[in-house]
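so my prof wants the structure for this chain in the tokens format not the other one, which i didnt know existed until like an hour ago. anyway here's the sequence
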Amino acid sequence: MKIAIIGYGYWGRNIARTAKEEGLEIVTIYDEDKKRIKEAKKFYDFIEVDSFDEVLKLDIDSVFIITPPATHYEIAKKALLADKHIFVEKPFTLNLDDAYELIELAESRNLIYMVDHVFVYSEPVKYLKQNLDKFGEIVYINSRRINLGLFQYTTDVIWDLAVHDLSIIDYLVGLNIKNVSCFKRKYKDFPNDAIARINLELDNEIIVGIDVSWLSPMKVREMIIGGTKLSVVYDDTIEDKIKLYDKGVVLEKSLDKNELYECMVKYKYGDEIIPKLPKNMPLNNAINHFSECVREKKLPITSKKSIINVIKALEIISKV
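here's what i got, hopefully its the right format
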């Protein structure tokens, strides 16, 4: 597949490296910052262009859009109108109307579109999806995605970080929100919220808590899923990323001598299980999946449903 990469910042560098590893042909890399193009030339042999319009005139199949979120809609629309498939960094767009428009445009032209909800393609999340029925009824999901982060001028910490957790939750259990509360704060004079605590009640009665922050002195990428049969801790910062726990709270019903109903609380302690997972990196899996979908003309996992559900959730949370 012949591709163009638009944006050669932090994530654009990762995209370029991974695309090359996976055998994609990088026809061009375009960034308005000429210093970044000069840097890219040290590692890749590609055609230099002076504008995005020139990119679309090249012999390419797909456009990888790795630019600030506020630019996604305009760039993606131009690429689709030029009959190019699109791979878009998260979030797909900054509002639902723009997302629907791009989706309808892509589908009307039989083009493949995919948002880079990269952790959906991670081996731990794939394992959780495949084994979710073993957890019994899911009661709660708690996640922390915090770091001393790169402050974003074009979006806030929720659209920057919580988007990852929301995409994982949507993939695993759905994301139909029944109730929501959110506490968020800016840092000094910075214009966007830098820390937030999100509480959700889903239609399936799962309780979700998400903490995100650009202000933490340490990096944490942790999700805990509590089920009636098994619980799991998914920690993306360590080697053994998944730990299953055969332990939890058991409620026993009994009647005393006066036939009064009681609930006896007991704690079940069992084994800790660490499954062996493939070592594939999430971004490699994501780019491979996109390439496969282009070849086979099928919708990616993170296409319409994932895009719409996550942006809808982000809009609901942002309005609280």
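also thought this was worth mentioning. The domain at 120-280 is CATH 3.30.360.10 (Dihydrodipicolinate Reductase; domain 2).
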